[in-house]
Amino acid sequence: MSKFDFAPMPDAKGYFGEFGGQLIPPELKAIMDEIDLAYEEIRQQPAFQQELATLFNDYVGRPSPLYHAKRLSAKLGGAQIYLKREDLNHTGAHKINHCLGEALLAKYMGKTKVIAETGAGQHGVALATACALVGIPCEIHMGQVDIEKEHPNVSKMKILGCKLVPVTQGTATLKDAVDSAFVEYLKDPVNYLYAIGSVVGPHPFPKMVRDFQSIIGQEAREQFQAKTGKLPDYITACVGGGSNAIGLFTAFLADQSVKIVGVEPAGMGLDTDKHSATLTLGKPGEIHGMKCYVLADDTGQPMAVHSIASGLDYPGVGPQHSYLKELGRVQYETATDEECLTAFMTLSQVEGIIPALESSHAVAWAMRTAPQLSPEQSILINVSGRGDKDTDYVISKLGL
Ligand SMILES: Cc1ncc(COP(=O)(O)O)c(C=O)c1O
Q: Is the model's pTM score more than 0.90?
């Protein structure tokens, strides 16, 4: 078995329990089936596995380190905190892991353009990077609100040569960017590939993106055992669509001693309408070609959601997360914008590591939980990305 072989989920039709599937018109279903077939073909080829492994090592800089945050652990006065440093990857986040896979697949399938949405700009930068490397034109759709907030990533996408399409409809954030990218994709789905930026959308994307991201947990599990001789008591990651979380969780799902916690954005509070806590307060529904938990209004329309972290404000969530919640294997918790900002500043000033606002949600949950545990216990946090893109925003928000 190679390190790119994974758990036998979803089933052949793309279902994780009752979640997932291909809730799309038949013409599009045929194209998704072709993508699935090509993916299943390519991922078993030793040449593809070798190419991806070499890119992970020599281009991304994998394995990303596992770091024992001793000063933060001492400050919190409880569990030992370990950080999986996806922030140190080339392009600054975990998104490059699946973008390289998707770009190589696009090349293999002879696609002429790769399209995607982006929220925080991390998926956009990572995809523009992978497309530059592979030599395929790339088009990124991004909400106008996020364009203004995530300026450094916008500049990078332009420099990397992708076409950036500003989206002004709706709340001009992540969901609207997905809708807009989808409209462009439907103009020529035979020749274009919609490289979805998380473990969402119709089958095979939740499976494929998970598979490419699973390297995070495979490395972290080995690294943790090598450092401590045991497994962590808790592992945690932020959940937007859920790709960095499922990337960490997959290798630990069978380890019953490991408690797994996904952290959603509670925004300005769960008792307001300014949050994006889909698994916590949503219900099973449909969005973007899949069945999953959805934050929807009474008519079933996805709600306008909010998070201080542009990469987390999505009213749906990956179908596998929806299933893991129902199974009770993963516990989904929340952190507010305020807790996120405190975690952002604390990790920066206590460890010299500036995390992305998205990742800061997981740090916030760990900061709340560690003091209740003993120093013999441990929490492994996935630092999904670095906070360079967020510094100007945080400075103005905190009036520093
Ligand atoms: C650094 C970082 N972490 C997390 C996320 C959320 O995505 P996901 O839940 O798919 O990991 C994003 C999205 O842009 C991100 O940029």
A: yes
